[in-house]
Amino acid sequence: MRKLFYPKLAASNIIKNRKTYVPYIITCVITISMYYILRSLTMNEGINSMMGDASIFYMLTLGCRVIAIFAVIFLFYTNSFLMKRRKKEFGLFNILGMEKKHLGRVIALEALYIAAGSIVLGIAFGIILDKVMYMLLMKLMGYKVPLGFYISGKVMLTTIELFAAIFLLIFIYSLLQVQLAKPIELLKGGNVGEKEPKAKWLMAILGVLCLAGGYYIAVTTKNPIAAILLFFVAVILVIIGTYMLFTAGSIVLLKILRKNKRYYYKAKHFISISGMLYRMKQNAAGLATVCILSTMVLVMVSSTSSMMIGIESVLSERLPYDMTVYMNYDSSYEEGAEQSRKLRGAIENALDEKGIQARNQIGYTYLAFAGLRDKDTFLVDSSVNDMGTGDTCNLFFGTLDEYNAMTGADKMLAADEMMIVGNRKEYDYDEINLFDKTYQITEKLEEFPGNGVIASNGASSYYIVVKDSQVIEELYQLQKEAYDSEASSIRYCYGFDVDLNHDGQIELYGNLYDVAAENGVSASIESKADMGYSIKSMYVGFFFLGTYLGVLFVMATVLIIYYKQISEGYDDKERFEIMQKVGMSHEEVRRSIRSQILTVFFLPLIMAGIHIAFAFPIIKEILVVLNLTDTTLYIMCTIGCFAIFSAMYAVIYGLTAKAYYRIVKR
Amino acid sequence: MAILDVKGLKKIYTTRLGGNQVQALSSVSLSVEKGEYVAIMGESGSGKTTLLNILAALDKPTGGEVILDGKSIWKVKEKEMSAFRRDNLGFVFQDFNLLDTFTLQDNIFLPLVLAGKDFPEMDQRLKPLAAKLGIQDILKKYPYEVSGGQKQRAAIARALITQPKLVLADEPTGALDSRAADGFLKLFNEINEDGQTILMVTHSAKAASHAGRVMFIKDGEVFHQIYRGNSSNKDMYRKISDTLTLLATGGEDNA
What we know:
The complex is a heterodimer.
Chain A: H1 5-16, H2 18-43, H3 45-50, H4 55-95, H5 100-141, H6 153-180, H7 183-188, H8 201-220, H9 224-259, H10 261-264, H11 267-309, H12 311-318, E1 323-328, H13 333-354, E2 358-374, E3 377-379, H14 383-386, E4 392-399, H15 400-407, E5 417-422, E6 431-434, E7 437-444, H16 452-456, E8 460-466, H17 469-483, E9 490-498, H18 502-518, E10 523-527, H19 528-582, H20 586-625, H21 631-664
Parallel strand pairs in A: 3-6, 4-8, 5-7
Antiparallel strand pairs in A: 1-9, 1-10, 2-3, 2-4, 2-9, 5-8, 6-7
Helix pairs in contact in A: 1-5, 2-4, 2-5, 2-6, 2-19, 4-6, 4-19, 5-6, 8-9, 8-20, 9-11, 9-20, 11-19, 11-20, 11-21, 19-20, 19-21, 20-21
Chain B: E1 2-14, E2 21-33, E3 37-41, H1 48-55, E4 63-68, E5 71-72, H2 78-88, E6 89-92, H3 104-114, H4 119-133, H5 148-160, E7 166-170, H6 178-193, E8 198-202, H7 205-208, E9 213-218, E10 221-227, H8 233-248, H9 251-254
Parallel strand pairs in B: 3-8, 3-9, 6-7, 7-8
Antiparallel strand pairs in B: 1-2, 1-4, 4-5, 9-10
Helix pairs in contact in B: 3-5, 4-5, 5-6
């Protein structure tokens, strides 16, 4: 009987506190199963063999790390909330004669139950859902999956190890909190922190500066390559800024409002300002976290889903033809042209022999090199390649003859005249200054020739038609002097479509290399079947991970909001009664508290909306690096995601508000 | 003229699961004159708090009538009840009931803000009141920063700032030490001398001895009452003690 006292007490404690413990356990179970699933997918042989590319593997591994870090922070946070609520209970046990070591025993047993229960359930759900996720991933890639479960002992072991360690840390932390406190402090535990928050001006200003800095980077960075690096700087600045602004800025603002007597002493503002002032201090960190999580969810889901939706257009831009052959001119223009004609002829012959018809053929010579644009002047010098900032552009030259041949047009140009078209940005000037020479723009073209290599360049490119090969050769020499060993060569691009299935195309892709080798020409060949597949797998990986982590973060958001409402309910209960006694009607009290919660509740969402609006330019640049240039699509996805998220947020509010009113109403 | 008239007040509580009925007030009739200071005494469970809650319009009686300044308070519409309570009644509670989120000043202003008064008027009302109650230096402090006596003074200021017809006090010295309680009772006497009508519920003989009239409630009825007349606080205290002894030792047989 006596032996079972502590195990029974621990079990009944959890059951008694089920209102707060059940959500906590559910969170633990979900986090564990999500970790298990992702870990299992990284080990999945099917995925590794089918996705020749390692990019999806790295992405999933990265996702595992994110979940692990998230689990540590988040489970600590929720547990500390639970412990704070329960301090009174422990204080009572302590006063009733339980020693600290006995309390320790109870806490240890509770922790054990929760850890064991969540790990077992988490892995069980993980095993079941693992298959579903695997099928989903394969379906996104366009594959069928064999039936049967894939269970890995190794994955299970790593999951158990990780979460056992996290639960142990949480237990030690709870134990320390109880051990270090005096009984009377424990009894008061739920009520500490009622002091008026101080206005921290410095912190508020720093917060505003951090946020402004982050926003500035996001808005002004025009270079996609720099964008990727600066994005993380901006993200960190915005996160720091958000925390500071919520903790200090909100209090400073409310205090300023309170100083304005005419505004403050109005029935509507009086109660809500003082209430929010009081509430902000307790909840600032929680609100900032909700804001950051919402922003992350929105950014991840909207960008990755726009990638998923835009995948076909990306493929057609990056790989405009089923087969594309690129060949470098190693020597003079004439010799190069001679060789390219030879290669093209050999390829055409080989296709004829196999009875394969090449459609939509295109072939042209071009020179492409980088330049730093300043209005209508392009600076070409070796510093351009090194620096990440500024408006770095790709200049892509072709001859008039080939242009006319490709388009069937009959245009004329003089030696100092050019025609231009940009693939991502319009060219707004009438002249081009290049290597101390000025060229007149006679015409802005409509169409940009298909060139996957150019398209894959993150910087924006300008296709420029010049009079003849002589101009190209001049430019070639000049950029060679400027860039030295990093200079570009003149290249030949030959693309065509074929009527072959996936395997046939892969086979042909191999054959073309042989043809090039037989003719003694070194060429690089891109096949849509081969390369498109790895691009797709990268996109699918991003999308899968984005939504997966999105779900996890939404769950975290829900839980934080739920706990916030509950703790506010307990706080407000007393205030609610006093206000009624002093002469507020039931309805007035309800309305005032409701508007207060509503403000506090939707503040993070509004802030997240602002973050996303400012993040838009830089994310657009990053998507360009990933070949996604369809800005409208991204805007639509972002708006859609924000609308769905807001609706979901409102539903969460409605549900948790019910829990709140149940507490307040007695 | 009676400012408060209570006629045949009756309150029966029914326990939640139906069944048992508990009679808290059987038939209470009393009247309070304008400018009077009345104390109501009784043991725990005698119905004091029920009576006060009904007088404060926080609870509905099962039967009987409460007339404040010629108006039956249960005729006031539910919607206007809060405003009615705010304008006509002032409350002083045992545990002060000050909001932790407000400074003392803002706590005192609360009923006025709810009534839609503007700041200059509120300030004008507060100044003499704060000076009288000796709290002018601590108005900017928060409830948790001041002593119990100071909190109770702030609570009095909050009750008086609306210039109510009647101040209801529920065990106001219950949470104060003896020195603070003495100060409080002296203050209440001064306020009464200025013409404020006060009804106080207490089971402290000392607190009651400051009142002009003391009523005793037992088993839901007014059992006895003592008028001060010209007697001193000490005499009052003795009379109250005698009555309490009588009540405790089975007054019904001797009455």
